[in-house]
Design a protein that fits this description.
Blueprint: H1 6-19, E1 27-30, H2 34-43, E2 48-51, H3 53-64, H4 70-83, H5 87-101, H6 107-114, H7 121-124, E3 139-140
Parallel strand pairs: 1-2
Antiparallel strand pairs: 1-3
Helix pairs in contact: 1-2, 3-4, 4-5
Length: 141
Amino acid sequence: MKNKEIESFKWLFQCWLRCMGGNAPKGFFADQCASMKRALEACMPTTIHRWCIWHIMKKIPSKLNGYKGHAEIEQEMSEVVWNSHSKDSFDRNWNEFLLNFGLVDNKWLSDLYEDRHIWVPIYLDHHFWTGMRSTQRISML
């Protein structure tokens, strides 16, 4: 979409719902577009919105490139995200990761942590996603 305003996404989702006889999808994969998230919450409140982890992980080099040892940071963040086997272990590992690399005050990482329930696999494992974790295109289940 050329215009990524909330109202534009609301219009799109309302049209989609009309075409689908009012049936909202159970789940929705998308990138981190805040306008889309708000429109989805307004138009399809029962739909589970999930951020595409591929998009997030792809942003690591550009978001953390200014830090010394950014390649190590990227590797460790990936380990924490993919290898935490419980929510508690993710939280513990994430905080340890931030402390070890001096990233406690990084806004991007703080924001990601606040929204962990819509992108970190361990927070989404109680929903059925047909094995999908990411997509390079927006998809609906």
